[in-house]
Design brief:
Elements lengths: L1 H8 L10 H8 L10 E5 L5 H9 L3 E6 L2 H13 L6 E5 L12 E7 L7 H8 L3 E14 L6 H10 L9 H7 L2 E8 L3 H21 L4 H20 L3 E10 L2
Parallel strand pairs: 1-2, 1-4, 2-3, 4-5
Antiparallel strand pairs: 5-7, 6-7
Helix pairs in contact: 2-3, 8-9
């Protein structure tokens, strides 16, 4: 099923919620960056936000992902946008990236930090930042208290723990950062480049893979995720955190 999963997600413009306006809003909070900063985009996927970062800065972008086909798609897109000179694609695991300390002015992680954990990433990646460097992170959070039980059961079957958006504020401070900004991703972050094309892909594959029970199981699970968000999006979503190293 891993191959089918990747086959589906390689066709999407994004592999998770996001939009260029939110990337721009977060980037605008990175005050005092060098004229040509070095930015690490961790778990970049096919890199729609990576290309937006290329447009926003004259610096160098290191795009890192463990799935090589995602990076090939990003590279081909960048070729059409004349951004290759400042873009470096790296196949690597975010748990063992191997960079030297103080390598980056900013670390970017839109929708990918769950693979390592919010607090662990703040702790382990801090040394990679130069003094005063930033992290920009989007993470799944509760927006409201007391969400309905069906969505609680569903989300906690997908992730080990889910915090309220404010619960990360003291964690950020305890890890040696200051919170520069926080904002929830808007509804279009979920639908325009992610759930709408994903839903179309599910419908397309339902018939062609009708005799494959495992494939149907995956498609059903993806469809359930979309329906949960359609019904309960007021209770949960992605929060975007911009933090700055202070020690």
């Amino acid at each position: 099923m891993d191959q089918l999963f990747y086959d589906i997600f390689e066709t999407l413009q994004r592999q998770g919620p996001g939009d260029n306006a939110s990337t721009r809003r977060a980037f605008q909070q990175l005050n005092g960056l060098p004229e040509a900063p070095v930015i690490l985009d961790v778990g970049c996927g096919v890199g729609k936000q990576t290309l937006e970062l290329c447009r926003l800065t004259s610096g160098t972008i290191i795009a890192l992902d463990s799935h090589a086909p995602f990076l090939r798609i990003l590279w081909n897109q960048a070729e059409r946008k004349a951004e290759l000179a400042r873009l470096h694609c790296l196949i690597a695991d975010m748990n063992a990236m191997g960079f030297r300390d103080a390598s980056f002015d900013a670390i970017w992680a839109e929708g990918s930090i769950f693979l390592i954990g919010f607090e662990k990433a703040l702790q382990e990646w801090k040394a990679l930042l130069r003094p005063g460097g930033y992290m920009a992170i989007s993470e799944l959070v509760w927006f409201k208290e007391n969400p309905p039980q069906p969505v609680v059961d569903f989300l906690l079957s997908e992730v080990p723990v889910l915090y309220g958006f404010k619960d990360y504020f003291p964690i950020i401070e305890a890890c040696g950062y200051r919170l520069v900004d926080y904002f929830p991703l808007p509804a279009e972050s979920w639908w325009t480049d992610y759930y709408t094309p994903l839903e179309s892909k599910i419908h397309e594959l339902r018939n062609s893979l009708r005799n494959d029970p495992k494939a149907q199981e995956l498609l059903t699970a993806l469809g359930l995720e979309i329906e949960m968000h359609r019904k309960y999006s007021e209770y949960y979503g992605y929060g975007f955190y911009i933090v700055q190293r202070v020690d």
